[in-house]
Amino acid sequence: MSDLLEVKNLKTGFQTENGFLPVVHGISFHVNQGEIVGLVGESGSGKSVTSLSIMRLFHDTRGKIAEGEILYKGENVLTFPEKKMTKYRGKELSMIFQEPMTALNPVLTIGKQMRETIMLHLGMSKKEAHQYAIEKLKSVGIQRAEQVMEDYPHQLSGGMRQRVIIAMQISCNPSLLIADEPTTALDVTIQAQILKLMEEIQQKTNMGILLITHDLGVVAEICDRVIVMYAGRIVEEASAVELFENPKHPYTKGLMESAPKIGSKKDRLNSITGTVPNPNNMPKGCKFAPRCPVAMAVCHEKEPELMGEGNHSARCWLLDEEVKKKEEMLNA
Ligand code: SF4
Ligand code: MG
C-alpha cells in the first residue's frame, strides 16, 4: 500500500496510422512519502513515457493512455478535469527535465518566471513572491540569488540552471517530485552536487521522489528502491541495497557491468550488446532474449511474469525452478 503514488497496470502508447502502438505494457509500481525511487533503463525502455503519463503531459504528444490508474494520494489523476490537473501540477506533483533550458522561458528573467509560479500556486503578492523566490534560490545553494533573479536563462551555466529549476519546482512544496534524467546533461562534478542537493531536499521536506535515469551510478548515490524497466515492462524491482548485492535479471546485471565505477581506470565500458527492441517489432517471448547472454529455448517462446519473494522480484525464467530444471534436462 502506498500513501503517495500508486501506478496500477498502466498501459500507454502512440496512436499511429496503423493503429495503437503500445510502449508501456501494463506496469504497476508505487512511491511512498519520503522515499527516493529510481526508475532505470536504457532510452527507449518507456521511462519517460511513464513519467509524462503521471504528470498527464503524455497526451500532449501523440501519446495515449490506454488503460490503468495513476493514484495520487488515492485519487486517480487520469480522471481529473484539466483544470484540477493544472492546479496539481507544480503544487502537488512537480517535474524536472533533463535539459533545463527547455523548462525555462528564454525571454523572461528567472525572477519573473519564479514569481509567476509562486503567485499562481501560493497566492502571494508580487513582493512576497520575490522574497520567497530568493529564499528558495538560496536553499538550493545559489549564493548570489538576488543577481540570479535578474538574469536570463542563457546567462547561467547548465548546473546553475538545473538548480534554478529545482528551486522553482520545489517552491510550492510538492509531495511528489519526478526528476527525468536531471543530471544527464551536466558534467560529473556538477552531477554529484545536484544529486546531493536532491537528497538534502528530500530529507528536509519528506517528499517522495521518482528519479528517472539510465545510469545505475546515479541510483546507487541516492535511491532507496529501484525499478528496472526494459521494453516497456518492469523487469526487476528491489531495494537499492538488495539490487546491488543480489541482482537477479540478466539485464540488470548488464546495466551494472556497463555502469562506470568510481576509481576505475577503464574508460571503455562493457555495454550490453544490441539495442532495445522497437515497439513495432517486439520479439516473441522474453523481450530481452535476443540480447541475453544466458537465454534458454523457453525464453524465445514464452514471456515470463514478474516472479520473486518479498520485496524483490524479477521477470526472468531463471527464477522459475521448474522451467530451469526442464531446460537443463533438455540440454543434458
Ligand atoms: Fe534471459 Fe531468459 Fe531471463 Fe529473458 S527470461 S532475461 S532471455 S534468461
Ligand atoms: Mg531518503
Characterize the structure shown.
It contains twelve helices and twelve strands. With 332 residues, the protein is of the alpha/beta class. It has two domains: 246 residues, P-loop containing nucleotide triphosphate hydrolases (Rossmann fold); 74 residues, no CATH class. The strands form two sheets. It has an eight-stranded mixed beta sheet, with helices on both faces. Strands 2-1-4-5 form a four-stranded antiparallel beta sheet, with helices on one face. The longest helix has 18 residues. The termini are far apart. The model has no long low-confidence stretch (mean pLDDT 90). The structure holds iron/sulfur cluster and magnesium ion. The site of iron/sulfur cluster has 14 residues, from loops. It is a peripheral membrane protein. Belongs to the ABC transporter superfamily. Keywords: ATP-binding, Cell membrane, Membrane, Nucleotide-binding, Transport. InterPro entries: AAA+_ATPase, ABC_Ni/Peptide_Import, ABC_transporter-like_ATP-bd, ABC_transporter-like_CS, Oligopep_ABC_C, P-loop_NTPase.
